Amino acid sequence: MPDDHSYAQTSQSTPGRNTPEQSELPDSTDKDPSGMPTYAVELEGLTKVYQAAGNAEEKRALSSVDLKIPRGSIFGLLGPNGAGKSTLINILAGLVNKTSGSAKIWGHDIVDEMRPARMSIGVVPQELNFDPFFTPLELLELQAGLYGVPKSERRSEEILDVMGLTDKAKTYTRSLSGGMKRRLMVGKAMVHNPPVLVLDEPTAGVDIELRQQLWAYVRELNKRGTTILLTTHYLEEAEELCDEIAIINHGQVIACDTTQALLARIESKTLTLTLGEDLDSLPGSFTAFHVEQKSARELTFTYKSDDGQLAEILKAAHVAGLSILDLTTDQGDLEDIFLQLTRGAHNATA
Ligand SMILES: Nc1ncnc2c1ncn2[C@@H]1O[C@H](COP(=O)(O)OP(=O)(O)OP(=O)(O)O)[C@@H](O)[C@H]1O
Ligand SMILES: [Mg+2]
Hints:
Elements: H1 5-13, E1 39-50, E2 59-70, E3 74-78, H2 85-93, E4 100-105, E5 108-109, H3 114-119, E6 121-124, H4 136-146, H5 156-162, H6 178-189, E7 196-200, H7 208-223, E8 227-231, H8 235-241, E9 244-249, E10 252-258, H9 259-263, E11 268-275, E12 290-295, E13 298-304, H10 309-319, E14 324-330, H11 334-349
Parallel strand pairs: 3-8, 3-9, 6-7, 7-8
Antiparallel strand pairs: 1-2, 1-4, 4-5, 9-10, 11-13, 11-14, 12-13
The protein binds adenosine-5'-triphosphate (ATP) and magnesium ion.
């Protein structure tokens, strides 16, 4: 990852227009003693119905979504294709009009206080959206101009440096690689130094190394106080990166919790025993358990994580006189929870 340090220093000496410290807030009870909002984003009953057009029928993409995204968090928005994630993000970005409900960004209502709300957020959209005949430097300058950032406060070169694009600053963006274009998109969302950064599938189609770099950078930004909202289909990534996660399906929030609490919902775990000698048949003491013999020397138990069965399994193995060479447990992961919840909701609506 490029050296972020210079960026941190410079951005402190020339603060952007909407650093968390600077942003003016309306009178609201949702402020903590620092004067900053408790929630970076607050949605209440947010609903979006896309009108019927041509052959396409009316589509309810979001249905009364309530969501509070704590200031300073990395918040993950997960859900299957078509769940409504981009719709939600595009409403925050001002690209899609909501049908009803309300949304606040950094304490500002997106309709009544559109300008400060827009200035408080930077959005990296799912689709690449820049003119291939501009250079990265020109694009950043143009974007800063759109946001009304005065020349003296612009940080285009610094952002290019952070994004590792300095040597491409003056080449046509069409000649950048896909991963470089993604980084430029992130840079573009940051020109006005917003306290909230939204990333819609930023690492789709990006190689593993670059993905790691991007996430390291997201973490770094977050450490410096930026609240991050991201959507991703890489559940492993969400599990590793996000403090809180909302799962959305058919336009509704079906789970919203800390990543830890979500993982604690996993009901069953597996235990695999590797034995020192071949086992012809299962010992009688194992009949009480859900067990499968995978090979002559391998047994896999599935057990409920919360009722002390693990100790009983080990006791039974001991009683049966088995020599155990190795033992592994699989806790399950976010993917299990995701499938459990989205399948459940699908069945419920079917
Ligand atoms: N401009 C539009 N006009 C009509 N319907 C739309 C429009 N944009 C999205 N939709 C519909 O709204 C629903 C939600 O779409 P959205 O793009 O928000 O999903 P998503 O969760 O971002 O999916 P993905 O994971 O594939 O990016 C889908 O059924 C989609 O077809
Ligand atoms: Mg999307």
